[in-house]
Write a structure and sequence with these properties.
The structure is a homodimer of 288-residue chains. Chain A is α/β, with parallel strands linked by helices. Helix content of chain A is 50%, strand content 13%. In chain A, the strands form two sheets. A six-stranded parallel beta sheet of chain A has the order 3-2-1-4-5-6, with helices on both faces. Chain A has a three-stranded mixed beta sheet with strand order 7-8-9. In chain A, helix 7 crosses helix 10. The longest helix of chain A has 29 residues. The mean pLDDT of chain A is 94. Chains A and B meet through helix 7, helix 8, helix 9, helix 10 and helix 11 of A and helix 7, helix 8, helix 9, helix 10 and helix 11 of B.
């Protein structure tokens, strides 16, 4: 059991990600005092699962005296809370978030949070399609990459080192990048796959007729390729709002790739497309 | 242990699907004599795995005296073998196939196979992205739907009943449809997901630069959404050649759906798209 990196942690948003962070903290750092804030019903569930020690009545009450403030909310909601956090956070607090886009929240944090309070943008590249504390698990971060936004201004703040060690204890691998690179990269490897799953699900639903076809011939392929379609709208609304240009560009690239495939359906060039697909499959499964 | 439905079975193509059929027969009907035909190296592997009893030197030698001829090859290859099968099959043979498209092979079978030899178009909606006998498993058909093409001309041939009972013993559920409906439906729930995975893999590969981004931030979502990209070219070349129009249409529908999403990135209408995606997710997971 490692020594607790942060003695008091406030988790704002105790759904899938915040709840899993709470359960993982509980498992690896049982000494840590965890205060949660969310809707009353969610908080009650988090308490009954022993994910949190205290349910706070407001973000202000949650962050008071916390050494670590962990914002696990849809990104626009998280941004909206920054002024309140700025007013009530302890001077030595490290504030970090989990949102799927980083440019908007890093910019907002610069505008609202003043030293010595420190903001570190974060994004666990992990998750499940089903949201909510009922799907939270201490193992969510195990083996996952965890993007962290490096800013020159931070220098070598020891709180950042402590947080990275904490992530390591939870089984996550920190990957440093700047906010712009993060948002561009995630548009391709996360936001595009999500929107493809949503679009494909829409096509299959639209095409299904009163006979039940083609759904009644659905096999594992379409089930897998639409699993992400169960993802919650509120999270993705915020991601689409805060990464619109990168996402639009990735959708354009995808439309081009589909058009290219359409042109090669009866041509030898189709082999090149499959060769590229085979190669990416291998790359994604190489030992790191 | 059920009584063997067919005492002698010829499997032409002992890769993933043919090899799995052999292993499943072996498990559920150990009395059945199984003759295989494929490339020498594949046959050797099939024999060493005890999937087949005999390795035949030619399709003609394999089908001789077989009560059931199981064609598990890419569809154009299977069609090319029909004249040879017609010349050598036993009069009472049931010939069936496993190809992902049905119109072309049913038409070719009508042209080549003459009564009393009977052709039954089949397609197990199961599989893995990795081809070859080394990935074959007796459980491949367990819980899978197995499309069968009903033709009025067949009447109530008892061989068909025997084959359906065999499939049931292997854990598969027969779904009857006509060839045109099958190919239209599969273009949407199988061929489109495959080509989307291939296209997405191509986009991710193209976008990856010398820094390793965005691949180094790849998480479970993109890994899952490109798993099918490992599928073998030769199978899909034949599917694209024999279902071109349906596939082109499904690609068009997908392009429209992506364009629609692109337009709603900053609009409340995005919620409708996610609601449809959530609904399809539920439909695909309803108990049958």
């Amino acid at each position: 059991m490692a020594e607790a990196a942060f003695s008091r942690v406030a988790i704002l948003g105790t759904g899938l990600v915040g709840g899993s962070f709470a359960l993982a903290l509980r498992k690896h750092f049982p000494e840590t005092r965890i205060v949660g804030w969310d809707r009353a019903q969610v908080l009650e569930r988090a308490k009954s699962l022993a994910a949190i020690d205290e349910a706070a009545a407001s973000p202000a009450a949650a962050v008071r005296d916390a050494e670590l403030v962990y914002l696990a909310l849809p990104v626009v909601r998280a941004i909206d809370l920054l002024p309140e956090i700025a007013r009530h956070a302890a001077p030595q607090a490290l504030v970090t978030d989990t949102a799927g886009t980083k440019v908007a929240i890093v910019r907002a944090a610069e505008a609202h949070l003043r030293p010595p309070v420190l903001f570190l943008g974060g994004h666990p590249v992990a998750g499940k399609e089903l949201a909510g504390i009922e799907h939270a698990a201490a193992e969510l971060f195990q083996g996952a990459r965890y993007a962290l936004v490096r800013r020159e201004a931070d220098g070598e703040d020891e709180r950042v080192g402590r947080f990275v060690r904490l992530l390591g204890a939870l089984g996550a691998e920190a990957v440093w990048c700047d906010a712009e690179t993060h948002d561009w990269a995630m548009a391709i490897v996360s936001h595009l796959p999500q929107l493809i799953a949503t679009a494909l699900a829409g096509v299959v639903l639209d095409e299904t007729d009163e006979t039940g076809m083609p759904l009644s011939l659905a096999g594992p392929a379409v089930q897998e390729m639409t699993r992400l379609a169960a993802s919650p709208y509120d999270t993705w609304r915020d991601i689409c709002l805060t990464n619109t240009e990168n996402i639009a560009r990735s959708l354009d690239r995808m439309a081009q790739a589909l058009e290219q495939l359409r042109r090669t359906l009866r041509s030898r060039d189709l082999e090149k497309e499959f060769a590229a697909g085979n190669e990416l499959y291998r790359l994604l499964r190489q030992p790191r």
